[in-house]
Amino acid sequence: MQKSTDQYIIEGGKEGKRRLNILAGVLRPYTRALLATRGVEAGKTLIDVGCGGGHVALMVAKMVENNGRVEAVDFDGEILALSREDAIAEGVNNVLFRQGSAYDINYHNEFDFAYSRFLLSHLTEPLSVLQKMVQSVKPGGQVIVEDIHFSGHFCYPVCKAFDDYVRYFTMAAHNNGQDAEIGPRLVGLCKDAGLTNVAFEVIQPCFNTGQGKLMAYSTLDRIKGTLIDQGIATAATIDNMLAELEQFGRNEQTIMSLPRIFRVWGEKR
User: How many domains does the chain have?
Assistant: First the structure.
């Protein structure tokens, strides 16, 4: 979810939705526990800014039940259409998916919570969007953000393709004026946006089996076009990296992590 001048480095559409399905499945228990701890429950309202595949929005819609409400905003109309199909299939009718830019949300004192996951790292002006999120919640409401410290990835044993993937992703974001290392900055940004009682925690899921080990491969595949366009790597180099990551991921003796994830929350005065 960006301005027209912001370029999302990860390709979206149907294939992008498949990647987001994997990511959502891996992160669901972590995000659900965070939101429940922060007080998301029956009757509450929440805006999910940069909702991607809509997975958190649908999960929250069930948490707040029919007397609660969720609005979910994203710039990718194709992914939103698929998210609406998911809502119908799951019988969820208290969520509204709306296409638009995070910079353009313009609510005032309307929601109990404003939430984003892995959005701010893709923006050239994250503080501007955080201020919009603060504006959206009621006095006493909460803003909750989860975002990455991408260089915090690790794998075991050393895998050159994995290390290059982490480096290339960070470079591509930087070249677009975005910050894949934004995680440690989030506390200060939330305070600058006007939140009080700001607190945070850091998690880092890691895996030797299962779908979590697909994330590096899947993400590299979806940033291939950006890496080529920016001259960071050739198609042949990326294809070789993908083959190495696939083989490394299949080996149950190896360990692969997601990036460090900073989870920050605060209250509106």
Answer: 1
